[in-house]
From TrEMBL:
This is Protein kinase domain-containing protein. Pfam families: Pkinase. The keyword Transferase applies. It comes from Paramecium octaurelia. One of its GO terms (biological process) is regulation of autophagy. Keywords: ATP-binding, Kinase, Nucleotide-binding, Transferase. PANTHER family: NON-SPECIFIC SERINE_THREONINE PROTEIN KINASE (PTHR24348:SF22), SERINE/THREONINE-PROTEIN KINASE UNC-51-RELATED (PTHR24348). Residues 368-378 have a biased composition (Polar residues). GO terms for cellular component: autophagosome; cytosol; membrane; phagophore assembly site. One of its GO terms (molecular function) is protein serine/threonine kinase activity. Residues 28-278 form the Protein kinase domain. ATP binds at K57.
Length: 621
C-alpha cells in the first residue's frame, strides 16, 4: 500500500457549510460528518479524480495535548500503513497541515457492528459465522505484522456491505511503537482482558475482546457487568461464562476459547481460524450397502423408555437378574431433539419448545438406524445364523447409540434446571459427557487396530467395507462429542469453582480428561445419579397435585418429569454396563439401546408420572 505523507498549507478562512473543503484530489462538505472522536471528526468525502467515495478523518492538532496523544496518532498511521487486507479498513493517504492531520480511508457504507445490534437486535449465529471468519482473516494479517489493536469491540468493526472491516487503530501498537508507548491503560473496559486491566497487552488481549464482541452480538449484552472496573476485572477472573440463550456447542466452545483467563491457554488467531465453528460441516448420512439408513428412526417405537405392554421387551431385556421396566404406552413432549411439533390429537397440534431447526436437522442425520436392518439382525440372531461381521456391526452400533442417548441426556440437563444442590448438576453434566468420551475413546482405539470390544475375527472384519463406513461415522461423531466435552470441561476450570467440586472426593477421582474405561467410573456415576434423581423427584413432588391420570402434565412440570425418566434409564444402563463389563455384545442385546436411542416424541400424563415414581421405588434408587 502506498501511503503519501504531505505537508501543505490549508486556507485559514472559514468555509461555508455547503462548500467543499479540498485536500489535493480529495474533498468533503462540512455537513457530511459521519462520526466524531475526542479530537477528530470523520466526514464522508470523495476522490475528485475517480469519484470514489472515501472517509476523511480530520484530526485537530489542538486536541493532541500530550506526547501520548501524538504517539497514539503516529501508531495509528504506522499500523494502517502496514496493512492491506479485505477485512481491514484501508488507508489511502495521509496529509499533515499546520492545524490538522487528514487520514483518507476506505468508506464503509453499512455502519458498524455496534449499530447493527442497536438497529436489528441480537444476531443469528449463522450470520456471525461468516462475519467472524472475515474478522479472523483480517486479524491474522495484523498478527503477522506484529500489530495489537487494543480496542477491538463491535463499534470498531465497520461493515462495507456485508464485509467486516477492522477499524479505529487509535490505540494500536506496532513493533516500532510498542517499546516506546507509555505504560498506560487504554481500551474499553467491558472488552478488556484481565491482563489488559494490568496494562499488559498482546494478541491474546484482542482475542479476548473478539470473544466478548461475539457474545454481545449473539445475546445483546456482554458476559460480565459490574459497578466498577475493579469489580469487573474480578468477575471476569472468577465467574464462569453463562449463556442466556441458545447457541450451538461449537459456538460456545469458540467463545470459551477466547475467554480463558490464562493467556497461555487462550486461543490463538490460527486456532480460531481452524475452529470447527468457522469450518463447521454437518454430519453426513452413512450410505452404502447395509448401512444406507442405519440411523433412521424406528417409526414403531414410542418414547425410548416408554414401551408398549403388548409383550414388548423392556429396555434392559427380560432376563430375571436385571430390573426391568413395564409401562403403558405414553407420550412425552421432548423425546427426540428432532421433533418440532407432535400431534396432540387429530384436531390439534402442539408446538414443541425445542432449541433450533438446525439442531433438528442435525438429529435427523444422527438418527438413521433402519428398522429393516434391526429386524434383519434380530431374525438372524434368533436363528443362530448371524455372521461374525453382522454381530460386530451390532456391537459397534450399540456403543454409538449409547453415546447418542447420552447426548440427549446432556441436552435435557442443559434445558431443564431442576437440580438445585450446588454443583450437583455440574458434576452430572461432566460425567454424562465424560461417559460419551469414554465410549468414543474405545471406538477410536478400534479404528487404529486395537480390538477394544472383543470383536470376532477382528483382522478379517476390519477389511469389510461396512467396517470402513462405520469408521467414517465414528470419526464424525467423535468431532461433535469431543467439542461438547471440551465445552463442559472448560466451563468447570475456574479455580474457585474447581476447588468446590473436588471437595467431593469420589467425584474428584474421575474429574479429569482420562477416557480409559473403569468399572469404578460407573459406581461413582450411579451414586451421583441417585442424588440427582431423588432431588428432581422431590422437587416435582412438591409442585404436583395428582389429578385424572389421563390428563396431560403442566408444561412447567413435564420437562422435569422427562429429565427424571431419562436419568432413571441412564441409571439402569450404567448398572447394566457394570454387569456386562467384559461382554459388549451382551450389553447390546440386553439394553435394547437401539430402541432407547430412537424413541418418538409424545406427551406425558399424570398416569405416566405415577409410573415413573413407581419405577424409582422398584429400582430402590
Amino acid at each position: 500500500m502506498l501511503v503519501q505523507q504531505q505537508q501543505r498549507q490549508m486556507p485559514a478562512t472559514p468555509i461555508p457549510g455547503n462548500a467543499r473543503k479540498v485536500i489535493e484530489n480529495f474533498s468533503y462538505a462540512l455537513q457530511d460528518a459521519i462520526g466524531k472522536g475526542f479530537s477528530s471528526i470523520v466526514y464522508k468525502g470523495r476522490n475528485d479524480e475517480t469519484h470514489e467515495v472515501v472517509a476523511i478523518k480530520v484530526i485537530d492538532k489542538k486536541g493532541l495535548k500530550t506526547p501520548l496523544h501524538y504517539q497514539l496518532l503516529r501508531s495509528e498511521v504506522e499500523a494502517l500503513s502496514q496493512l492491506n487486507s479485505p477485512n481491514i479498513m484501508r488507508l489511502y493517504k495521509v496529509y499533515y497541515t499546520e492545524n490538522n492531520t487528514y487520514l483518507i480511508t476506505e468508506f464503509c457504507d453499512s455502519g458498524d457492528l455496534g449499530q447493527l445490534v442497536t438497529k436489528t437486535g441480537v444476531q443469528k449465529e449463522q450470520n456471525m459465522q461468516k462475519l467472524f471468519y472475515g474478522i479472523i482473516q483480517g486479524y491474522k494479517q495484523m498478527k503477522q505484522r506484529g500489530i495489537v489493536h487494543r480496542d477491538l469491540k463491535p463499534a470498531n468493526i465497520l461493515l462495507k456491505g456485508s464485509v467486516p472491516k477492522i477499524a479505529d487503530f487509535g490505540f494500536a501498537t506496532t513493533p516500532q511503537t510498542a517499546a516506546t508507548m507509555p505504560n498506560v491503560n487504554v481500551g474499553s473496559p467491558l472488552y478488556m482482558s484481565p491482563q489488559a486491566f494490568k496494562n499488559r497487552y498482546s494478541e491474546k488481549s484482542d482475542i479476548w475482546a473478539l470473544g466478548v464482541s461475539l457474545y454481545e452480538l449473539l445475546f445483546g449484552q456482554v458476559p460480565w457487568q459490574a459497578g466498577s472496573e475493579r469489580e469487573l476485572a474480578q468477575r471476569m477472573a472468577t465467574v464462569p461464562v453463562q449463556f442466556p440463550g441458545h447457541i450451538s456447542d461449537e459456538c460456545k466452545d469458540f467463545i470459551y476459547r477466547c475467554l480463558i483467563v490464562d493467556e497461555s491457554r487462550r486461543a490463538t488467531v490460527e486456532e480460531l481460524e481452524n475452529h470447527i465453528w468457522l469450518s463447521k460441516q454437518e454430519l453426513q448420512p452413512i450410505k452404502g450397502n447395509g448401512f444406507s439408513s442405519m440411523f433412521r428412526s424406528n417409526q414403531q417405537h414410542n418414547h425410548p423408555h416408554l414401551l408398549q405392554n403388548n409383550n414388548a421387551a423392556t429396555p434392559l431385556g427380560d432376563t430375571q437378574n436385571k430390573q426391568s421396566i413395564s409401562l403403558q404406552p405414553r407420550e412425552s413432549n421432548y423425546g427426540k431433539e428432532n421433533a418440532v411439533i407432535v400431534k396432540q390429537s387429530q384436531q390439534s397440534i402442539m408446538q414443541q419448545p425445542l432449541k433450533s431447526i438446525k439442531r433438528v436437522q442435525e438429529s435427523r442425520k444422527e438418527s438413521q438406524i433402519s428398522q429393516q436392518m434391526h429386524q434383519e439382525y434380530s431374525s438372524q440372531r434368533e436363528e443362530d445364523c448371524w455372521s461374525d461381521s453382522k454381530k460386530n456391526d451390532y456391537i459397534i452400533l450399540a456403543q454409538l447409540n449409547f453415546c447418542r442417548y447420552l447426548y440427549r441426556v446432556s441436552a435435557l440437563m442443559d434445558k431443564h434446571r431442576f437440580v438445585q444442590t450446588p454443583y450437583l448438576r455440574e458434576k452430572l453434566m461432566f460425567l454424562v459427557n465424560k461417559n460419551i468420551m469414554i465410549k468414543m475413546n474405545c471406538l477410536n482405539e478400534l479404528m487404529v487396530g486395537q480390538n477394544t470390544l472383543g470383536l470376532e475375527k477382528f483382522q478379517q472384519y476390519i477389511q469389510n467395507p461396512q467396517y470402513t463406513k462405520l469408521c467414517a461415522a465414528i470419526h464424525q461423531y467423535n468431532q461433535k462429542y469431543t467439542l461438547q466435552f471440551n465445552t463442559v470441561w472448560l466451563s468447570l476450570q475456574n479455580p474457585d469453582q474447581k476447588q468446590l467440586l473436588v471437595v467431593d472426593k469420589k467425584f474428584d477421582a474421575v474429574f479429569d480428561d482420562n477416557f480409559t474405561e473403569y468399572e469404578s467410573f460407573y459406581i461413582i456415576l450411579n451414586s451421583i445419579l441417585r442424588c440427582a434423581i431423588k432431588e428432581i423427584e422431590y422437587s416435582i413432588e412438591s409442585k404436583i397435585v395428582i389429578q385424572d391420570t389421563q390428563q396431560l402434565l403442566p408444561m412447567d412440570i413435564e420437562g422435569g418429569v422427562i429429565l427424571l425418566d431419562y436419568l432413571i434409564t441412564y441409571f439402569q444402563l450404567a448398572s447394566l454396563i457394570q454387569e456386562c463389563f467384559e461382554d459388549p455384545y451382551e450389553f447390546a442385546v440386553d439394553s435394547k439401546i437401539e430402541q432407547i436411542a430412537d424413541g418418538k416424541p409424545v406427551r406425558l400424563t399424570y398416569g405416566h408420572y405415577i409410573e415413573i415414581r413407581n419405577k424409582i421405588k422398584q429400582l430402590d434408587i
